Each structure stands twice: as structure tokens, then as C-alpha cells.
Amino acid sequence: MKLQRKNRLRATALGALAVSGALVLTACGSDDNSGSTGGSGETKAASNIKCDDAKGQLRAAGSTAQKNAIDLWVKNFQAACEGVEINYQAIGSGGGITNFTQGRVAFAGSDSALKPEEVAESKKICKTGQGINLPMVGGPVAIGYNLEGVDDLVLDAKTLAQIFDSKITKWNDKAIAKLNPDAKLPSTTIQAFHRSDESGTTQNLGKYLNTAAASDWKYDPKSKSWPAKGGQAANGSSGVVSNVKDTNGAIGYFELSYATANKLNTVKINTGAAAPVEATTENASKAIAAAKVTGKGKDLALSLDYATKAEGAYPIVLVTYEIACDKGNNKETLPALKAFLNYAVSEDGQKVLADADYAPLPAEIAAKVREIVPTLS
Questions:
Q1: What is the Cα–Cα distance from 230 to 182, expressed in whole angstroms?
Q2: Which of 48, 156, 223, 314 has the greatest number of CB atoms lying within 10 Å of its CB?
Q3: Entry's SUPFAM superfamilies (predicted)?
Q4: Fold entry, domain 14-137+324-375
């Protein structure tokens, strides 16, 4: 089935959105998200956004998966709050956390929760507190592909693991053919693309494969770096999607809005449910809603069920966290930090996500985040 755009999604690419005063971080690559889109997503009225005492420049960096969501929020927030600049650089989750623990940014975006050693490192910057994980954006990790003559493709965890581990190398492999009996699969060589930078998206895909296809994906599920040999590497989600789009026989993984913007077909996943599950925000929400909070205190790190077989639940999902200090934040940027995060997790902020192929947070989780953000100090 050909990838369908949502009627509400505008053709304008928010990846080209100009955010004034772009932040330049040394020793970090840049992900410009060329060709990506996030829809219009404007709030009903600027008055719905509470600016409070927000002022000056707020620097942030991290996840490329959430960039389109951040662009929407920044556009709306800056329109409502004069004198505030939000500069978010999409350099990958690993780069964002590094910049946060080095005190270069007020918050980091990461598609995976802080590791214990990263929490310990954050205490040097937070001083009287530590870094905490605040869920803010949800969505499916789409498996996008470019295969001439094939518009509808079903794969399962086992075949995906073997494809990304270079064990299945031809599109007409019998394992793929078995899952797609009506497809005319060519003998084209599979070109599997993965992230070259440290990425929470990579980690979430690895957790899914390690959970749902444990005998075929034996790599460390905690790694943000691509663990398997072979395949082809590209920087950031925009790099992966660009290569898949330009290469017949290619397959890769990225947040759904990248596939939508680039008009790429996405794989349906055979989870063992009655029917294969498509990568949609609604189907991702069904999986995210079952997440459990495993963080302590103000930390809201989540545990996702990658092995779900629930009807209509898309299993390859991620939740992007905004990582900030619970205490010890920079006093000059604290008002802008709280105001921006308050807007992002508000009803208005979450509503705009669906237009950009993201999954709004489940109500129970969003409510917990809304309680914590105002207490940051």
C-alpha cells in the first residue's frame, strides 16, 4: 500500500524552517532535516501560550527524531513570546546528552533515557540536583524502503534482524517471499542503511530486535551506536532517509515524519497479531500507552513493550525525553526553559504533534510531566 499523507499535513517542509541565531556546537555534526516536514500545527491562539518571565536565548541539542516537533513548538512559542530565541540543534541523542553534561545547553533531547553514568555526570552541571528524563514526544520508528514495483511490504522481527545484520541480502529471499506471497519481489540486492552517529532511534530499534527476535539479534540493546557489521552508514535521520530515497533496493529506519515528507513506503510489521501493523501515530500510541514509568522521584523514564502482540499496536516505537536538571538550572535560562517545556507538554502543544506524524503522550504520562515541569529550579 502506498504511503498516504494526512489531509492536514501541509506540503511546506518545516525542515527548512529558519530558527534565528542558530547554535553552533564545536565537535558536533549537524542534521538539517532537509526534505522533512511537520505540518502547520499552529496553536488556536497565541494567548494560550504562557510566556511568564521567559527571555533571552535558550540553547538545546539532541534527537533528530523530534526535530520536526521541536520546529513546530519553536515556531509557535517564539511567535507568542517576544524576545525569546529557542535554538535547537539536531545532532543526535548521544551528542545532545554530551552537550548537556558539559553544560553547553539548557536541555537535551534523547530518544533513550539517561544511563546511570550519565546521571552521575549530570550532577556536576546540575550541582544541587541531577538530570531527569521528561517524556515529551512519542511516535513510531518507521522502516522505510525503496523497491521498484513493490508498494506493499510486510516484514517481521526475524527478517528485519537478518536484513540489518546482512544475513538476508536479496529482496526475493524466501523468508521475505513467505511474508509477501502476492508481491513480485525482484532479485535486487538489499542496501540497508543505518545511523553513523550515536542515536536513541538506533537504540530503540535494537531493543525491539533484541526483544522480538532475540535469537537473530544478539547485540547489546543498550547501545546507541550501530552494532552490526555491514550495511551503509549515514549521519542523522535526514541522512538515512535521503539515501533510502535515492537508492533502489534500499531500506532504513527513521521517525515517521521523515518517511511522510519524502513520500517513502513503510513496512508493515507482522507482530503475531491477526493482521500486520502499519506505522501510524494511532498504532504507535496503542503501544506507548502500555509503557510503565520506571524512573524514581521526578524522573519519568519509561519502559516500553517492544514484544507487544496487541491488535493494531505498532511495536517499533520511541519516546523522546527532554533532559533537564531537576535542581540547579541556570537562573538566567530557567524561566524560558520552564515556559517552553510547559507549552510543549500542554494540551495545545501535544495536539500539534499528530499533524506532524508524532504520537501525543498518553494522558496519564502527560499529566505527570505537567506536574513536574513547574517545579524545575
A1: 30
A2: 314
A3: Periplasmic binding protein-like II
A4: D-Maltodextrin-Binding Protein; domain 2 (3.40.190)
